[in-house]
Each structure stands twice: as C-alpha cells, then as structure tokens.
C-alpha cells in the first residue's frame, strides 16, 4: 500500500512538520478540507490550540470523517502536544491535563529517557501531561519518570515538539507504521 501523508493544516505548527518531512524525503499534503482526507494513510495532528482545531474540524465537516477513519484504523496518527489532546478525543486511551507543565513562560528543553529514540531531546511549550495511560499503551519516552511519548494502536503521540528539533527518527518511525 502506498503511503499518503497529510498534515492537518487548520491551525498550529504546520510548516515545521512539513520541513521535517521534506528533510527525510517524504512528500505530504496539507489537509484543510474533508476531501483532503481521501487516501490519507498517515496524518500529523500538530501542536497549536486543541479547542480551536476541534471547532474547525467540526465547522468544516471533517470531524466525523476523521473520527471514523481513525476508529477503523485506516489512518496512522502522529499527535503532537495539542494533537495529543485531539488524539484523546479520537479514542487514544489516556487522560491528559492541558498546560500541566505551565504557561508559555515555563517552556523548556530537556533530555528524555527512551530506549527506542536514543539522544532524544524534548521541547515543551505549554505542554499537557498524561495523567493516566492505559495498560494497552506502550510508553516510548519519559521525563522525570513521567510518560511523554506513547503508542496506542494507530496512535503515536507526544506532549513535546519534535518538529522543533533536528531529530528525524520519530518521523521515520511513524512512517514505517
């Protein structure tokens, strides 16, 4: 099956994800309408503002279509920060506390613990926190013992921003799914 990668482009950090995909030679489409979802196999839900993205997805008639495609596991999802919150609304088996690491002035960058992604650095910007993670989820990275990257069925989600780093392994891993 041919991969067709999309980046939800209604609001948030769209360009940065596009640059990461370009650097690893992966073509992509910007998803702005329900029609743009046709044939998408991998979708990045970027950081931004989850409430605004939810409202726009519903306003543009995309919510139900996307929800069904995710539920049927037709689409692999990479959810980043606000995209992780959206992923929870689409069935990711976690509970999330929005802005749990503080506001914009509390943003930080730090080394993370991960066997899968060695030398991983996390950039946290108004980051949410996983407060409950289902036993069915696989924790891929932690910060101070707390999960910051998880995998659950067709979801790969992170509460930090890999698109602001030069760490391409996350995107390569996502595209192999």
Description of the molecule:
The structure is a single chain. This protein is of the alpha/beta class and 177 residues long. It has one domain: Class I glutamine amidotransferase (GATase) domain (Rossmann fold, 3-Layer(aba) Sandwich), CATH 3.40.50.880. It is built from 5 helices and 11 strands, in the order βαββααβαβββββββα. β10 and β11 form a beta hairpin. α2 crosses α4. The protein starts with a strand and ends with a helix. The model has no long low-confidence stretch (mean pLDDT 94).
Overall morphology: globular
Measured between the Cα atoms of the first and last residue, the distance is: 12 Å
Strand order of the largest sheet: 2-1-3-4-11-10-9
Total discrete domains: 1
Helix content: 25-40%
Q: Compute the CA-based radius of gyration.
A: 15 Å
Biggest sheet record: 7 strands, mixed
Beta-strand percent range:
25-35%
User: Could you give the order of the helices and strands?
Assistant: EHEEHHEHEEEEEEEH
The first-level CATH class name: Alpha Beta
Q: Can you count the beta strands?
A: 11
The helix-and-strand class reads alpha/beta
Mean pLDDT: 94
Task: Give the number of helices.
Answer: 5
User: CATH topology, anyone?
Assistant: Rossmann fold
Q: Per CATH, which architecture?
A: 3-Layer(aba) Sandwich
């Amino acid at each position: 099956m041919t991969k067709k990668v999309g980046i939800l482009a209604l609001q948030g950090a769209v360009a940065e994800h596009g640059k990461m995909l370009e650097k690893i030679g992966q073509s992509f489409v910007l998803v702005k309408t329900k029609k743009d979802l046709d044939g998408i196999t991998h979708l990045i839900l970027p950081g931004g503002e989850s409430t605004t993205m939810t409202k726009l997805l519903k306003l543009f008639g995309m919510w139900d279509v996307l929800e069904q495609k995710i539920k049927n596991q037709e689409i692999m999802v990479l959810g980043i920060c606000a995209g992780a919150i959206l992923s929870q609304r689409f069935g990711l088996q976690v509970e999330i506390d929005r802005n749990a690491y503080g506001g914009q002035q509390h943003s930080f960058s730090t080394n993370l613990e991960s066997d899968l992604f060695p030398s991983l650095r996390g950039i946290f910007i108004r980051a949410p926190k996983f407060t409950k993670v289902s036993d069915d989820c696989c924790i891929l990275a932690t910060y101070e013992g707390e999960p910051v990257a998880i995998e659950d069925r067709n979801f790969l989600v992170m509460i930090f921003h890999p698109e602001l780093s030069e760490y391409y392994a996350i995107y390569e891993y996502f595209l192999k799914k």
